[in-house]
Amino acid sequence: MAEWFGDNSGLLGLALLDGLASAGLIFLVAVGLNLVFGVLRIINVAHGSLYAIGAYAAASVGIVFASMGLPAWASLPALVVAAALVGGILGPLIERLVLRRIYGQEEVLQLLVTFALFMILEDVQKLIWGVQPVQHDQAMRLLGTYDVPFAGDVVPFTAYQLFVLPGVALVVLVGLAWFLRRTLTGRVIVAVTTDREAATAMGIDARRVFLLTFTFGAMLAALGGALSSPTGAIVPGIGAQTIVLSFAVVATAGLGQTEGAALTALMIGLGRSIAVYFEPELEVVVPYIIMVAVLLVRPQGLFGSTVARRI
Amino acid sequence: MRDGPTPATLALEGASVDIAGVPVLRGISLAVPPGGRVALIGRNGAGKTTTLRALMGLLPLRRGRVLLGGEDATAIPPHHRPRRGIGYAPEERRLFGTFSVQENLLLPAQVLKLPAAEQRRRLDQVFALLPELTELAPRRAAGLSGGQGKMVALGRALMVGTSAVLLDEPFQGLAPALALRYAEALKRLHEALPDVAILITESNPELLRPLVESAYTIERGEIAAA
Q: How distant is the Cα of A300 from the closest Cα of chain B, in angstroms?
């Protein structure tokens, strides 16, 4: 094994650089899914749609910005603006109109409702953006490339994928940990996650926390999509692909674990890119191999605890 | 405005509560006067916890009313009741495990957006009444023993409970020495804050006798004796 990697250590390094970028994107989506589940106790299948709509909206906002004659650097804030718009509009709409009706109901019903929502949003995307690939990569081209030495030559990586994607994920991870720990709103969210009834008895309006958390989770999913949009063409189906992958991350990490989700996203992101370099046909199954292997040994997930919830 | 005796701080009038379609409380009426110390005695499953949860608005009433300070509070959402000066220490403590003891104590006061000076004053008051909490303040709540946790839960209820505290089976599972300390804390509480009403549930009436002025007995969801 060591020898096999020894011959390919340069290649492994490239795989790690690729994996870091995809891990960052998976993390943004998975951590939102996780947060929403922790507070609302609903597994939101439509979380993947928010990612896809975030990606499409980022491309559209980027195109609009460019057509308005804004400077090229504006394409970077355009990504964040698009994510905030998508999360800030769709988040409260979905929570108020759909989720509010299914809190505390059977899980099967909740899954069916959010799955139905996912299907509806898929069609809405086709209605607005069509089925042809959409592309707007100005934000990525803007930052240029960075030459990584490999086998006596260099391989150009985009600075966007090397620095922006992992950087934003890191900022979100650290910022979220700080927010949940140090701010009153963050502690209120943690209190509702820990024990909704006790939190209510302390004067916390759980419904407001649900709305806030869901909107925030929606923004994170949309941010993941928006940041991914400059790296390639946006095609129908990316929502489904993303939700399945982030389920794998959340299940492997253990539901409700933020830092755990980050480490697991890293593991799965790196696992995938290593597969791309060494055994490309395994790329698609690697996340699920990791998930199954972990869940066979630790059904509660890598970082989950087995404390039974009292009823 | 109002004639006659001062209205009760807390009262239930003919309250019936169902949980998952099963009647748990059947027409309960009880009243806790201002500064009164009242026990609710009953076996496990008699409906003690449900009575307190109904007072806090955590369960909807099928019939009857909740009165706070003589006013009909049945429709007041549960998260607005602490604002009315009602503190609640649930059974099983229900502290927030990742927070420190001090963060647990402060949370309800912060949620009510009390001025910082008032939060500090109430915290100091809780530390004065329950001196063991001073030492525990920086500790993580998840690492507390059962007895320590009950003290913290009492302190947390006092942070907002300016007119009443509801204590659900605080003596349950406490070692005798700790139970004695808890009882002493309740006496100190009554001496220091004579206006705060206390409603306390328990399955063993002997334990509470020296601590309360009156007692209700609840059996199968009905008040059997007052």
A: 19
Q: Tell whether A309 is covered by a domain.
A: no
Could you identify the residue written with the tokens 């169902």? B18
Reading the block at residue B35, the tokens are 């500064």
* Tally of CB atoms within 10 A around A311: 3
pLDDT 10s digits, A182-220:
999 999 999 999 999 999 999 999 999 999 999 999 999
Round to whole Å and give the CA distance between A273 and A24. Answer: 13
Q: What is the pLDDT of residue A1?
A: 45
CA distance B131 to A208: 36
Pick the residue of A39, A202, A208, A310 with the most B CBs within 10 A to test the interface with B by mutation: A202
Maximal CA-CA distance, chain A = 66
Sign of CA dihedral A238, A53, A164, A244: negative
Asked if residue A302 is part of any domain, the answer here is no
Q: Measured between alpha carbons, how far is B122 from B124 in angstroms, rounded to an integer?
A: 5
ipTM: 0.92
User: C-alpha distances in angstroms, A159 versus A18, A73, A169, A187, A261?
Assistant: 12, 14, 15, 36, 25
User: Partners of B68 in the beta sheet?
Assistant: B10, B71
Residue that is written with structure tokens 């605890």 in the block: A305
Q: A21-65 pLDDT, tens per residue?
A: 999 999 999 999 999 998 999 999 999 999 999 999 999 999 999
Rounded Cα distance, A268 and A287, in Å = 5
**In terms of residue numbers, what domain contains A195?**
13-144+157-297
Nearest to A179 by CA among A187, A168, A171: A187
The whole-angstrom separation of Cα B56 and Cα B68 is 10
CA distance B114 to chain A (A): 12
Annotated domain spans of chain B: 34-58+81-225
Distance from C-alpha of B1 to C-alpha of A27, rounded to nearest angstrom: 61
Size of interface A-B (CB pairs under 8 A): 60
8 Å CB contact between A190 and A70: no
Confidence band of A7 (pLDDT split at 50, 70, 90) = low
Domain CATH for A30: 1.10.3470
Cα distance between residue A257 and residue A246, in whole Å: 13
Q: Which residue has the higher pLDDT, B53 or B175?
A: B53
**Contact status, residue A79 vs residue A139, Cβ threshold 8 Å:** yes
Nearest CB to A202: which of B53, B82, B92?
Answer: B82
**pLDDT category of residue A165 using cuts at 50, 70 and 90:** very high
3-state secondary structure of B46: coil
Percent of chain A with pLDDT over 90: 73
- Counting the structural domains of chain A, the total is 1
Would you identify the CATH topology of the domain B34-58+81-225? Rossmann fold (3.40.50)
Task: Report the mean per-residue pLDDT for chain B.
Answer: 93
- For residue A194, the distance in angstroms to the closest alpha carbon of chain B comes to 6
pLDDT reported for residue A21:
92
